[in-house]
């Protein structure tokens, strides 16, 4: 009788484990030390019944910075510019999905701020100037780094690749493309164009494999509280025509997380902002199935 009870309990535990494993996705977040990537990772970790998540950073310094926020975070050091190393990291974690949150980050030239202030005093216009750290420029991070992640994910058997990009990819003349631009150097600057090139590469890679993609183009990122506004979906930078075109990082992170749960988000590329112009008459977005079912996708 006792043996029968033990067998029954064992079978029930095994069944529960099998059922649970069907719903838990193993997700890797790259750029996890960044302002948006860290929020994505935190949201994934807050949903243990759905996800087992790990953050990827390039240096031990970034790992220490991230783990200070929560001791429960699993943070892995892996260089996205080294394709084989990153692939081995994905295989070791047995990743089902990757959320790409890496991006080149410009640094402001201090002297340009002084110049801008002086020009303003005399009624003239001058913009601050920016630069990128060595190997931290758009070509190396937003093109080569993203391409490495896509190739590594494909070879490691990743099923879903979420690409957090940016609006403005259809506009070569966009101001963001001038940041870090050096005359005569075709590889410099053009952050939005390099991102778009990587997006196209992802779509082509997925078309010849079982990996699915979701490409998200947020408008201007803010640090406001998320979950309080309606989120608008658009395509091909049409939302740039609106007067207000921003979105909280928290909302962007939530979209990344929900795209891993909603089948309608698969193989879709879209732009997002919050409805700031008519916020009072529109409740916050909560029905993600309906949101991702919006007809359309960006054209390349």
Describe this structure in words.
- This protein has helices at 2-21, 37-45, 60-67, 83-93, 110-121, 138-155, 191-207, 249-259, 288-292; strands at residues 25-30, 51-57, 75-77, 97-100, 107-108, 130-131, 160-164, 212-218, 220-222, 231-234, 246-248, 268-274.
- With 300 residues, it is of the alpha/beta class.
- An eight-stranded mixed β-sheet has the order 3-2-1-4-7-8-12-10, sandwiched between helices.
- Helix 7 links the parallel strand 7 and strand 8.
- The longest helix has 20 residues, at 2-21.
- It is globular and about 60 Å long.
- It starts with a helix and ends in an 8-residue tail after the last helix.
- Residues 1-21 have low confidence and may be disordered.
Q: Roughly what fraction of the amino acids lie in strands? A: 15-25%
Q: Number of helical segments? A: 9
What helical percentage do the residues reach? 25-40%
Low-confidence stretches: 1-21
Structural class: alpha/beta
Number of DSSP-assigned strands: 12
**Biggest beta sheet summary:** 8 strands, mixed
The neighbouring-strand order within the major sheet is 3-2-1-4-7-8-12-10
Measure the end-to-end span: 66 Å
Shape: globular
- Mean residue pLDDT: 90
Query: SSE order in H/E notation?
Result: HEHEHEHEEHEHEHEEEEHEH
**What is the C-alpha radius of gyration, as a whole number of Å?**
21 Å
Q: Any chance you could write out the topology, listing elements then pairs?
A:
Blueprint: H1 2-21, E1 25-30, H2 37-45, E2 51-57, H3 60-67, E3 75-77, H4 83-93, E4 97-100, E5 107-108, H5 110-121, E6 130-131, H6 138-155, E7 160-164, H7 191-207, E8 212-218, E9 220-222, E10 231-234, E11 246-248, H8 249-259, E12 268-274, H9 288-292
Parallel strand pairs: 1-2, 1-4, 2-3, 4-7, 7-8, 8-12, 9-11
Antiparallel strand pairs: 5-6, 10-12
Helix pairs in contact: 2-8, 4-6, 6-7
């Amino acid at each position: 009788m006792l043996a029968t009870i033990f067998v029954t309990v064992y079978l029930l535990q095994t069944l529960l484990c099998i059922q649970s494993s069907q719903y838990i996705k193993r997700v890797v977040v790259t750029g996890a030390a960044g302002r948006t990537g860290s929020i994505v990772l935190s949201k994934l970790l807050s949903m243990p019944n759905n996800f087992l998540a790990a953050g990827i950073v390039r240096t031990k310094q970034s790992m220490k910075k991230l783990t200070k926020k929560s001791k429960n975070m699993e943070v892995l050091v892996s260089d996205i510019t080294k394709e084989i190393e990153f692939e081995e990291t994905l295989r070791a974690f047995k990743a089902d999905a990757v959320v790409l949150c890496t991006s080149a980050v410009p640094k402001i030239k201090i002297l340009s701020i002084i110049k801008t202030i002086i020009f303003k005093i005399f009624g003239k216009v001058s913009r601050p100037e920016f630069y990128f750290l060595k190997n931290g420029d758009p070509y190396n991070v937003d093109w080569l780094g993203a391409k490495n992640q896509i190739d590594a994910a494909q070879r490691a058997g990743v099923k879903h690749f979420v690409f957090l990009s940016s609006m403005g990819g259809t506009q070569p003349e966009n101001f963001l493309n001038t940041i870090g631009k050096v005359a005569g150097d075709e590889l410099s600057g053009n952050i939005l164009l390099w991102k778009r090139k990587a997006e196209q590469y992802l779509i082509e890679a997925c078309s010849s494999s079982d990996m699915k993609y979701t490409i998200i183009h947020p408008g201007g990122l803010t640090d406001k509280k998320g979950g309080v506004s309606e989120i608008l979906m658009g395509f091909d930078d049409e939302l740039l025509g609106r007067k207000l075109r921003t979105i909280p990082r928290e909302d962007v992170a939530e979209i990344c997380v929900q795209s891993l749960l909603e089948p309608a988000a698969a193989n879709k590329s879209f732009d997002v902002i919050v409805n700031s112009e008519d916020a009072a008459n529109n409740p916050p977005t909560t029905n993600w199935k309906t949101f991702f079912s919006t007809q359309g996708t960006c054209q390349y």
